[in-house]
Amino acid sequence: MTTNTNTRYFDLHAEISGFFQRPRQLACKGKPTYVGFLAVRPHPQDPAKVAYTYFDLKVLCPEALKQIQTITDQVGSGKQVAARILISDLYIDPYDFLNPETKQVEKRTLVKGRLIKMLSPIELSNKRDALDVLTRLGGIAVRGAGYLNDVRDLGNRTVSTINAMHGEPELDGQKMKWAQTRFSLAVPAEIKPYIDFLRTGVMNQQSVFVSFKAENFFIDSFQIKKGVRAGETIHFLNGGLTKLSMASVAGERVDFAKILNTASGTTETQPEMTESMAPDAEQQDVHDEGEYLPAAA
Fold first, then answer.
1. Which residues on neighbouring strands pair with residue 162, listed in sequence order?
2. Where is the segment annotated Disordered (predicted)?
3. Rounded Cα gap, residues 25 and 38, in angstroms
4. Torsion angles phi and psi, residue 245, rounded to 5
């Protein structure tokens, strides 16, 4: 997250590896360039396979813009064009798709964002070897900051919901509001003591702000079953939490070292954390009303 004298800008960045698809330039003012990107991630059941998350990206990176004609030509000739890239301000975009076979309109979703940096040279091949790209260049890695909105125990798993903030705020009446992208993240054992501590703040409807890293997400959804929002479909990015680097509850920074010492009975210390830059508590998207059932992954 970066700041200036007038407002705060929240970064939501992801490093992704995969294959360029559908480079195109829109016939409108400014002629922005867009490109599809099929990102690879580990398959959740079979380590010998890969899974994919599709992105539609506005190209802002000068290096990528210089190579877009090469990418377009190679993709058009049937080549596989692979790279690792950095994207920002990712969000889920629902849209209607007219299925040419069934002639029915289907509800679909994709992840949109901005391509801001090439992290590796482009690689050309005649055959898509997704497992090789995943092994050499890595999967999906995201970092951001936002509000911890919910913590749930699902069987032997703990899942945390984080509303990650990104971009510059817009003035809504007298309040500043940021765009948010919802993440549902499985909590590993080494981070669970911190999440369990922060859970109390969430249950007490306090503002719980975190800086986090996560990995290998895909689009998922659930439908709210009860309350005034019954029937509403909520889309989110489903992945794994890998790190909490900062947290604050009601504006007060949390001392992670004390939490770890309490949980383990040791005197181990953690690296120093930055001060909280959380915006006002009103920015938190509080618990959804009613019960809901997650969709299948």
1. 148, 183
2. 263-297
3. 18
4. -100, -15
Chain segment 107-163, per-residue pLDDT in tens: 889 999 999 999 999 999 988 899 999 999 999 999 999 999 999 998 889 999 999
Q: Which two tokens stand for residue 167?
A: 């971009």
Residue 93 in tokens:
């975009």
- To the nearest whole number, what is the mean pLDDT of the chain? 82
Q: How far apart are CA 273 and CA 241, in angstroms?
A: 18
Q: Which two tokens stand for residue 170?
A: 């817009």
CB 279 within 8 A of CB 172: no
Q: Which two tokens stand for residue 5?
A: 């004298």
Which DSSP helix (H) or strand (E) runs through 68?
helix 62-76
Q: Which tokens go with 240?
A: 């794994």
Q: Which two tokens stand for residue 214?
A: 């996560």
Q: Measured between alpha carbons, how far is 4 from 144 in angstroms, rounded to an integer?
A: 18
> Do residues 185 and 213 make contact, with C-beta atoms less than 8 angstroms apart?
no
- pLDDT tens-place string over residues 213-224: 999 999 999 888
Class of domain 8-139: mainly beta
d(CA 206, CA 149): 10
Query: Which residues belong to CATH 2.40.50 in the chain?
Result: 8-139
* Residue carrying the six token digits 């790190």: 243
Please give the pLDDT value at position 219: 93
- Classify residue 176 as left (phi > 0), alpha (psi -120 to 50) or beta: beta
pTM of the model: 0.81
Q: What are phi and psi of 190, to 5 degrees?
A: -70, -20
